[in-house]
Design brief:
The protein has about 180 residues and is of the alpha/beta class. It is built from five helices and eleven strands; from the N terminus they run ααβαββββαββαββββ. The strands form three sheets. A five-stranded parallel β-sheet has the order 1-11-6-3-2, sandwiched between helices. A four-stranded mixed β-sheet has the order 7-4-5-8. A hairpin with a 5-residue loop joins β9 and β10. It starts with a helix and ends with a strand. InterPro entries: FTHF_cligase-like_sf, LUD_dom, NagB/RpiA_transferase-like. This is LUD domain-containing protein. It holds the Pfam family LUD_dom. It comes from Nonomuraea cypriaca.
Length: about 180
Amino acid sequence: MGAREEILARIGKAVARAGDVEIPRDYRTTQQVEDLVALFAERVDDYRAIVHVIPSAEVPARIDQIIGDRRVIVPDGFDRDGGWTDLNTADGVVTGCAVAVAETGTIVLDHGPGQGTRAQTLVPDYHLCVVRAGQIVSCVPEAVARLDPARPLTWISGPSATSDIELNRVEGVHGPRTLEVIIST
């Protein structure tokens, strides 16, 4: 018997004597938030994202204004004409989302209609995401309850950023360098 097998045998023996252990599942699943939109906007702004809170009727015109001459990917299912391009020539992507979390300022994509593929949302340097007020929930457990775990999920908390060993911040390494969010009220 090698060292690996010996260690695993000892672990198996120790665990066998432990018996069943009840795991408490009484953690918080919701949170009272007075203004979900305001909290979400504040948290997204804390992540250095650009945030616009506007009435839903103004969203199409604001998207056109923001996009301007950018070559953007507009995924199937997103309600916008024009501005379509492919991944190889894209300056950015415009998407919706599945859910957004006020407490953490996190946007979750499940890559359903209007949300694009993972490549479409991670490769371009710019991401404009439209979040409807009704998609904002208070906390992560509430968001998880709305999601299908079988779908590919991308959790976005601000523009992509990392730090090197000297703590120099580098943006855009693992996804878009710039995140802009329109919150549609």
